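Appendix B. Worked example

We walk through a single record from start to finish. Start with the input: the chain for Protein kinase domain-containing protein, Rhynchospora breviuscula, length 334.
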Amino acid sequence: MEQHLDTQVQREIKKFSHEELKAITNNFSRKIGRGGFGIVYHGYLENQTEVAVKTCTLESTQANKQFLAEVRSLSLVHHKNLVTLVGYCKDGVNLAVVYEYLPRGSLFDHLTGKNSSFSLNWRMRLNIVLEAAQALDYLHTGCGMVHRDVKSSNILLGQNFEAKVSDLGLAKMFSADANSIITLSGTPGYMDPEYQLTFTLNEKSDVYSFGVILMEIVTGEPPILTARESIHIVKFIKQKLATGSIDDVVDSRFEGQYDMNSVWKVVELAMICTRDESANRPTMADVVMHLKDCVQIEEHRQRGKLQPSEKSYMNMSSISTSHSMSVSFAPISR
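Next comes the structure step. The output line below is what the pipeline stores for this chain.
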């Protein structure tokens, strides 16, 4: 498999030596993050193009397999909202992936305040998750691939805050083996509960994880809230919605600059995405369609057709009782 991958990848992307990576990264002097198996460094190619170099420092069979999986996955997929693979290094024990550099960091950094220089408004958050959803839809429908580690820290942002999904190291093809039993992988807080119980993987596991991200962009909170006691964001929002109010969960950094209709729609979509049974979740194609509606609503507000103070409420019974796979949002009465 390894020999086949090397032959395949060499036809499409550049293979770097370890010495070349040392030159690109100025001897690995600037750390910009940490991946699952090593540190990520900033670097410049000879033409001064900025790149990120993700190293693999664990000399284990699992690390080697995941490295090879990421190289293979990135070399086979091409979408404007997926991180572009520039090259890779497999030089003895030195393993690394070289990909485009995204200067704005991750969605998670902005939501948690780690990147405090700029606060993402509601419209920007909607655009980011829409673009990320389009990338996942492409993986599912165009590539027959499950990402397996969808989370806000794996949504990277370009200079103009365009979103690109990264870290395909855990990705697995499911077109011919959709429900195979595999090793449990993912990140706590984002993992599909059905997958954790059954070890059965399909694309709806990504949908669950994406539903958690939708809750993050509404609340500005991480998947596991620890202010008083540890509580998962899905349970937290369900408790708030049980009172019929959503105001308490909306990120205060918005300062009221949003249309409540679009917020409700995103919350409802998030609740459907995070249903316990995967069969009752929408597809990523459905998610893309409804996020486009949410973006359009917010665009109308920003053009002055809706006032930020206007609030409306939808019947939440469809969230808690409906088990239909159809995802539809009726017009919200004012």
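Two observations about the output. Residues 77 and 109 are 26 Å apart (CA to CA). The chain has a mean pLDDT of 82.
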